[in-house]
Amino acid sequence: MAWIPIYILLLITTTIVSYFSGLLLQKQNNEKIRKLILWVSISINLGILFVFKYYNFFMDTIENIYNAIGYHSELPYSKLLLPIGISFYTFQAISYIVDVYRKDIEPEKHFGIFALYVTFFPQLVAGPIERANSLIPQLKAEHNFDFERISEGLKIMAWGLFKKVVVADRLGYISSYVFANPQSHEGPGLLLAMFFSSWQIYCDFSGYSDIAVGSAKVLGINLTQNFERPYFSSSFPELWRRWHISLMNWFRDYVFFPLGGSKYGVWNTCKNLIIVFTLSGLWHGAKWTYVLWGFLMGLCLVLSYLTRDFRKTVAEKICITKFPKLHKVIQILITYSIFLFFGVPFRAEKISDVFYIWSHLWLGWSNPTRGLDFDDFIITLGMPTQQEFNVGVIALGLLIIVEACKSYGISLKEKLEQRNMALRWSFYYLFLFLLAFYGVWNSSPFIYFQF
Amino acid sequence: MNNNLRDNWKLKLALLGLFFFFYIAINVFIDPSGLLRSAQEKTIAKWLNNGYGVINAINIDYRKVVRERIAILESKPDVVVMGSSRAMVIDSSMFPGDNFLNISLPSANLEDIIANYEILYENNKLPQKLIICPDLHYFNSYCKSTFHLFKEYDKALERMGIKKKQTLTDILVKVIDPRYIQILSPGYFQESIRYFPAWIIGKIPRPSPVEDYERREKVIRPDGSIIYESSRRERPQSEVDLKAERYAFKHPEGLVNYRSIDEFRRLIFESFIRRVKADGVELEMLLIPIHPRAYEILTNNKLYRIIIDVEEYMKQTFEKEKIKYAGSYSPSKCNVSSTEFYDAVHVKPEALKRLLDELNTRM
Lengths: 451, 363
Fold this sequence. Notes:
- The structure holds two protein chains of two kinds.
- By secondary structure, chain A is mainly alpha-helical.
- Chain A has two domains: 5-140, no CATH class; 149-438, no CATH class.
- In chain A, 70% of the residues lie in helices and 0% in strands.
- Chain A contains 20 helices and no strands.
- Chain A starts with 7 loop residues before the first helix and ends in a 13-residue tail after the last helix.
- By secondary structure, chain B is of the alpha/beta class.
- Chain B has one domain: Rossmann fold (3-Layer(aba) Sandwich), CATH 3.40.50.
- In chain B, 46% of the residues lie in helices and 9% in strands.
- In chain B, the strands form two sheets. Chain B has a five-stranded parallel β-sheet, with helices on both faces.
- In chain B, helix 1 packs across helix 8 and helix 11 packs parallel to helix 13 (292-299).
- The mean pLDDT of chain B is 88.
- Classes of the chains: A mainly alpha, B alpha/beta.
- The interface between A and B is medium-sized, with 26 and 27 residues.
């Protein structure tokens, strides 16, 4: 993933193609020509994405097939780097064209406003993927200075920064190291890396989303909330309604529904879910690990859908439904565990690593720290020092408490806002100090920038 | 907006501003690395040229030190070594009888080498023999640079007849001293807070001259070479190997996005070689290996296989230009074992001495 000035031409091409496609679609009444405009426009946008993101993946796959059948050939690989944010702005532009084609929205006539819609800086590089009918009217509206709104935006940004630099980047020491080299580790190390990785990804991406949402709010723009505490979901479908919401909505509206959605029986629904999630895996990256991840997520969703009644019956039979809070906690833990286990391909470098991790997860528990002191053990997992580990665990604990409270309808932020000014500002000062002091500030890029 | 908020917003903005004022004030007043002590590089250069070693040179601008000391150097050196921190342990004992100077720089890139040479040229201090220890990242156009010697570099390019496009970074570096950006950074704030107790009692370690080099802290010797701090010298082998693995698995900064040998850098490199030869300086090249485990991991990763091509390109160029060279980035090709490393990329002096001996025996 890279930021190269010349790649701005791609963004300009996407903007121009989508803008004029919108105008042409409105003028044209002939359905065949409208369809042609739609597909030409989508093809150009996806073509750019293919060349820059998927071409080498495609070549790699062909080469592997050739090798498997004993035919060796030098294939032309591309040396192009992945432009930053390309998957996000391409999908945003496609959503606009499709919405205009479906006559859900009027095309934007002002080129400047449209260009701003595609390139709006807070969400340009990693979303949320905004719909035209939500963002364009806001871009046109007049925004006055509103201290309350700015203050709210800054608080959201600060919380996002906390998630990114205090939690995600610190947990990333272990998860990045172990996932880059799983063969050197056994069950306890692998499980810890999986656990940290799940929170690292969540904090990294939702942290970015918070910063995007907060900075847009400062400017008077409300962006889509991209995460709603997904790890506190009590079922797999719920988790996917709360994780990367703007992307999931995109796939729902532009892939799942056009495929027939859930209209044509159980098997078609299952097939459509698998297709959508496999594609969403491919969207995340040009690697078979992502495709596998997407497929498995789709499969889990299908199983969840198919076993819904059965699970309900079991829960009633074992009387757990009489204790709804306990029931919910168990559901949350099961959902999270499944996501954790099948989330391995998302971080693994190779498919073989995925199977290595799954098969070795059960080994090494008789001697969890491999005969080392705990301090030394975590250092062998990639953590620079024990202190870093402690800070990471405490910060993660705080985050989980805050999110758990939110899940039970308790907003710590609102409670704080009810306090007097001296107390509130003491807290803000302390928070900013801890952010600056405990942040990992060596510029680790956001994970989702690579998509 | 309620009345209370409307009344207080100026106060709240002031309170927020106050936090950032404290943040900057802490960095400026504690200034643990002496970023704002502008004369320190000049003083260090004087100490070194007067035969003293220097300790506590934690965050000095090495490039400025080199510039200063070459300007006041009394005689032309016989042998000069240039490279990155990987070459900084090469010392005068490896060149008995020669007037030796090591002007290697931490995180040096190709531009630094060219600029350093220009400094030698401008001050009429070109040596008889120049040994360059080039690094793998020299030809990566995406490699981040901490380069500050832009004036000398631009002059050198002009002398070589090469026109360079000015990038935004080039312009920014010329306008804003990177020190001022660093003093605003949260990383510097963290350092300042750590040094706060020492600052209170007035005991922040500042660079100082020493005559004996057998110490626990890192020492820059008068010949420009360094002796690492004891914690690095005495690092257990398991820790060294772990560091090497981490380095390779964590996508080394200089190698990120390295897909091809950048044509412009290639042109500069080859022009530079021709220039040095034309100046009558005997040019030799030493390729310093990286830790065996790190090399294995990197070369097995598709993203970094370029490093094999880079070595191949360099060797072909040296042969074409009839330049003596020794060593390899592959430790197995030059018989350097994992026990001869301080970490993933820094080789111990004994192994470097062996490689230099091999260089001397080459025709």
